[in-house]
Amino acid sequence: MILMLGMALGVAALGMTIVLMRFGQVSQTEPDTQVTETPGAVSETLSENDTVDVYARVDVLPGVPSVAPQTPWLKLDASTTLTRIGVGSCLGQNQPQPVWDSILRLEPRPQLFMMMGDGVYGDIKSADAKELIQAYRDQSVRPELARARQEMPFLATWDDHDYGGNDKGADFEHKETAAKLFHDFWQMKPERPQDQGIYYARTYGVEGKRVQIIMLDTRSFRSDLRKKTNSFKYWGRYEPIGDPDRTMLGKAQWAWLEEQLQEAADVRLIVTSVQLLAGGHGFERWGNLPLERERFFQLIDDTGARGVILLSGDRHNGALYQIELKNGQRLPEMTSSSLNRSYGPSKDAPTPERLSRMYNQENFGILDIDWRLRRISLTLKDIGGEMLDSLTVKFSDLGID
Questions:
Q1: In a domain, 13, yes or no
Q2: pTM of the full predicted structure?
Q3: 226-253: pLDDT as tens digits
Q4: Cβ count near 131 (within 10 Å)
Q5: Is 85 contained in some domain?
Q6: 196-216: per-residue pLDDT in tens?
Q7: Checking DSSP bridges between strand 226-227 and strand 238-239, what pairing results, if any?
């Protein structure tokens, strides 16, 4: 049973900052970690545009108490001018998470962190989804993540392991349960019935400095993939199939995305849990459904969307990619993975869209927007915060006037 948090919040304006006071937080334990708070006040300095909320903790499923962390969390005010955003994916709940200390030490610190999928590893093997429930419970008491969530606002989408099944797509029978757990843990209000996808968008900043963030759902509607045959030359499990009846996003999400790309924005950050540009491998990617990938490129052209940057995770490797669209607009992608679950070196072929090496050690990404010099930098950093690689694009390269 989850212990209910007893706390009092004191928020006071101090010049250009707000101070959050937390009192008497209940200690919790996790198999290899103990979190203990000494009763008394702990102060944290927040941006003037941040707001503090307390989550209404209710049963997430019948008879299943909330899996959300028992701490207040930050919401970013819509008027905030974004200049630095952190991104990452693949965060194991039972492994140490030193990467958060590196992220919080950055100067300046990211104003927002976006989790791009696999926020837990809880593949469902039983009808009661106990594996995914326990994964979220374990993640909710990780002290490193708890601190990060109290000092930075977060947005999140899912990938297969918080969806509940390795490489699963539209036919996964537990996706509604997984959606309820996802929304509860990340303390997000569902925008539609929870069996109809978790995609959503947020816009921050004023006219001329407006950043639109589009969080895609590449799980709930994705058609089956074709298993790799001996004729496919790259390593991995799958190969492309040019079937017009197979989809990545589904009819409703495609229509929604078209509407979003016509909303007013200067920079558009599109988060897709699986890679969109990358070739050279046969693991999950948009290239397995090449007609859907081309449809995405065509939609950017048809809607006149400018300033589009792709952000992805999933691969347990980080890398930088870029292509040029038919209209001459550049389309970059930063893949950042993983935060604490590194695998062996990649065997991806060096295809033309990849600009960097593949970095298989723990990493995170930083996106910096320089509104004065009108350029955007995409930087991969290692677990200690040191730069691995970087790509800088001018606003004009992205079609921004």
A1: no
A2: 0.89
A3: 999 999 999 999 999 999 999 999 999 9
A4: 15
A5: yes
A6: 999 999 999 999 999 999 999
A7: antiparallel
